[in-house]
């Protein structure tokens, strides 16, 4: 469970909505992706872990047709009618919740008016999926308040649709899946085609290692437009490969045994496809390495993933490359790579616990010297996924 105190949330709820009934509260974590980047929309494999930072929402039905929201973090409020849900221009954070209401309505369910208060501690703009956490927490809370029995995977799909169709962001399903179904001290191996998943133990604590996440301070300004270009390039590669490999539906269906055909594609399609194919293989090898307790091999795969994202998929940037280089200069660090869509955002590194102070000092000093930017360094634990919070602040499991 997260370390956030639910008391301020509940106190704020009772102060703002004194006529509401006893509130329920839901928690959903952010996520960091360990391996499997830009494979999700190619129906491939991903390997995220839920983190011990996330979003909490407290709410109660209010007996009206109106939804009232208040964000502790933004000190902002919004209100809307259930029969007239349109995107908010002023408070864009509200749109992730509005989209969840709309998706429940599309299912033929009839959400009632609710009063909601929310707060979060996911670092903003770092690519750690605060948006997915918000959608998942809202979906879980509404499901509980109304007594619906929508299953966890269906709530994940609903949350993704809210972002795709109402917010207008063409994200894959990984973020919402990790937020809903993460497990403590595990990462989640997810097949983005079948949605089969398996919780894989992360032997970090036993080996005195930790996952350090470093925010480059570079806003991911190019990520949206370049993301769409990469998706299109992958689709073009599939169309061309289909001539030699009839029946393939996506790059997921192309294996390393077909790399000669892939390398014969025109540039840059060959490099884009090569990244996706080899990255899928890295996820499978990474899962096998962790099952064998081989953190060193897992670290090597992180390094190989970054090289592929930098050279073949071309979604890294000078600042991310610098953070990876600096991380690998610290003794004991097993691996590092960019994580997320790219063009800014974060890197991750497998750092020995005793080396954390040296790691932090090295990154802060040399990254600022080389880039003029101030990095932010976070240390996250693999956390449990979303849940309804009981009165004592513990999630129901």
Low-confidence stretches: 392-397
Report the sheet with the most strands, covering strand number, pairing sense and barrel closure. 8 strands, mixed
Question: Could you tell me the number of beta strands?
Answer: 12
Beta fraction: 15-25%
Number of helices: 11
Tell me the domain tally.
2
Going by CATH, the architecture of the largest domain would be 2-Layer Sandwich
Distance between the termini: 11 Å
CATH topology of the largest domain: Ribosomal Protein S5, domain 2
Radius of gyration: 21 Å
Order of helices and strands: HEEEEHEHHHEEEHHHHHEEHEE
General shape: globular
Name of the level-1 CATH class of the largest domain: Alpha Beta
Portion of residues within helices: 25-40%
The structural class is alpha+beta
Average residue-wise pLDDT: 92
Please explain how this structure is put together.
- With 397 residues, the chain is an alpha+beta fold.
- The chain has two domains: 203 residues, Ribosomal Protein S5, domain 2, CATH 3.30.230.10; 172 residues, GHMP kinase, C-terminal domain (Alpha-Beta Plaits, 2-Layer Sandwich).
- The strands form two sheets. Strands 1, 2, 3, 4, 5, 6, 7 and 12 form an eight-stranded mixed β-sheet that branches.
- Strand 9 and strand 10 form a beta hairpin.
- Helix 3 packs across helix 4 and helix 6 crosses helix 8.
Task: Quickly list its features.
four-stranded antiparallel β-sheet, Ribosomal Protein S5, domain 2, 22% strand, Alpha-Beta Plaits, alpha+beta, disordered C terminus, 397 residues
């Amino acid at each position: 469970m997260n370390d956030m105190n639910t008391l301020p949330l509940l106190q704020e709820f009772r102060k703002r909505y004194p006529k509401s009934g006893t509130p329920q509260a839901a928690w959903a974590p952010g996520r960091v992706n360990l391996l499997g980047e830009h494979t999700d929309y190619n129906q491939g494999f991903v390997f995220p872990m839920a983190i011990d930072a996330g979003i909490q929402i407290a709410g109660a039905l209010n007996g009206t047709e109106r939804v009232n929201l208040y964000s502790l973090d933004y000190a902002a409020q919004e209100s809307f009618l259930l029969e007239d849900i349109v995107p908010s221009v002023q408070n864009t954070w509200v749109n992730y919740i509005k989209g969840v209401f709309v998706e429940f309505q599309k299912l033929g369910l009839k959400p009632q008016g609710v009063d909601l208060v929310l707060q979060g501690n996911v670092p903003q703009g770092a690519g750690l999926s605060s948006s997915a956490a918000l959608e998942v927490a809202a979906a879980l809370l509404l499901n509980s308040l109304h007594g619906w029995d929508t299953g966890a995977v269906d709530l994940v799909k609903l949350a993704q649709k809210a972002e795709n169709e109402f917010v207008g962001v063409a994200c894959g399903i990984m973020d919402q899946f990790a937020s809903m179904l993460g497990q403590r001290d595990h990462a989640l191996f997810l097949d983005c085609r079948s949605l089969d998943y398996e919780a894989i133990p992360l032997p970090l604590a036993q080996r005195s290692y930790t996952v350090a996440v470093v925010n480059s301070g570079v806003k991911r300004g190019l990520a949206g437009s370049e993301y769409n270009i990469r998706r299109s390039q992958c689709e073009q590669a599939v169309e061309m490969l289909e001539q030699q490999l009839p029946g393939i539906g996506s790059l997921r269906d192309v294996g390393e045994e077909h790399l000669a055909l892939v390398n014969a594609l025109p540039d840059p399609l060959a490099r884009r496809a090569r990244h996706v194919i080899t990255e899928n293989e890295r996820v499978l090898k990474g899962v096998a390495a962790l099952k064998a307790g081989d953190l060193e091999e897992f670290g090597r795969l992180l390094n190989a993933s970054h090289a592929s994202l930098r050279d073949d998929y071309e979604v890294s940037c000078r600042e991310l490359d610098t953070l990876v280089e600096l991380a690998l200069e610290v003794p004991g660090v097993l691996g590092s790579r960019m994580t997320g869509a790219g063009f800014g955002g974060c890197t991750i590194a497998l750092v020995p616990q005793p080396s954390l102070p040296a790691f932090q000092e090295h990154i802060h000093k040399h990254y600022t010297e080389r880039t003029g930017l101030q990095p932010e360094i976070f240390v996250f634990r693999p956390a449990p996924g979303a849940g309804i919070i009981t009165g004592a602040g513990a999630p129901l499991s």
